[in-house]
Amino acid sequence: MARVVVDVMPKPEILDPQGQAVANALPRLGFTGISDVRQGKHFELEVDDSVDDETLAKIAIGFLSNPVIEDFVVRRLS
């Protein structure tokens, strides 16, 4: 078994209202020096060793992300 991480983030040109809300709240909470926040999704999958990178990309494109507005990165941890 292998552990795979898929991180999904809004594309840079897409408005991120959740990230903006966090960025706006940080100074009110006393945190300074943060100029931008982007909020995304983090998935951890346990997969058989037989699952190849192409299959993982198909899962990320077809199920875990919306490729019109989101980018993703697939990383094998083990």
Would you mind describing this structure in some detail?
The chain is an alpha+beta fold. The chain has one domain (about 1-75): Phosphoribosylformylglycinamidine synthase subunit PurS (Mth169, Chain: A), CATH 3.30.1280. About 30% of the residues lie in helices and about 30% in strands. It is built from 2 helices and 3 strands, in the order βαβαβ. It has helices at about 15-30, 55-65, and strands at about 1-10, 40-45, 70-75. It is elongated. Its main location: cytoplasm. This is Phosphoribosylformylglycinamidine synthase subunit PurS. It catalyses: N(2)-formyl-N(1)-(5-phospho-beta-D-ribosyl)glycinamide + L-glutamine + ATP + H2O = 2-formamido-N(1)-(5-O-phospho-beta-D-ribosyl)acetamidine + L-glutamate + ADP + phosphate + H(+). InterPro entries: PurS, PurS-like_sf.
Summarize the model shown.
With about 80 residues, this protein is α+β, with helices and mostly antiparallel strands. The chain contains two helices and three strands, in the order E-H-E-H-E.
Outline the low-pLDDT stretches. Answer: none
Overall geometry comes to elongated
What separation lies between the terminal Cα atoms? 8 Å
Q: What is the β-strand count? A: 3
Radius of gyration: 16 Å
SSE string, helices as H and strands as E = EHEHE
Per CATH, the superfamily is Phosphoribosylformylglycinamidine synthase subunit PurS
Treating each run of at least 4 consecutive H or I residues as one helix, how many helices?
A: 2
Helix percent band: 25-40%
- Level-1 CATH class name: Alpha Beta
Q: Provide the residue-averaged pLDDT.
A: 96
Helices and strands: which structural class?
alpha+beta
Could you say what the CATH architecture is?
A: 2-Layer Sandwich
CATH fold descriptor:
Mth169, Chain: A
Strand order of the largest sheet: 2-1-3
Q: Count structural domains.
A: 1
The biggest sheet, with number of strands, parallel, antiparallel or mixed sense and barrel status, is: 3 strands, antiparallel
Query: What fraction of the residues are assigned to beta strands by DSSP?
Result: 25-35%
